[in-house]
Design goal:
By secondary structure, this protein is mostly helical. It has one domain. The chain contains 2 helices and no strands. The longest helix has 16 residues.
């Protein structure tokens, strides 16, 4: 994710973060993203997104 030229407009970014930080659906998405990253070699147990919400 990013904000700026070639990425999302700030209001789109805010809407995405609002979704991820609210409710069970957002928590499931965050958990799934963290599971994908922690499955990569050398990144076991890494929680990038779960720490943001």
């Amino acid at each position: 994710m990013g904000v700026g030229d070639g990425y999302k407009r700030p209001e789109e970014f805010d809407r995405l973060l609002g979704y991820l930080a609210s409710g069970d659906d957002g928590r499931r998405v965050v958990s799934r993203m963290d599971q994908r990253f922690s499955a990569l070699p050398g990144l076991a147990g890494l929680r990038i997104y779960g720490n943001l919400c």
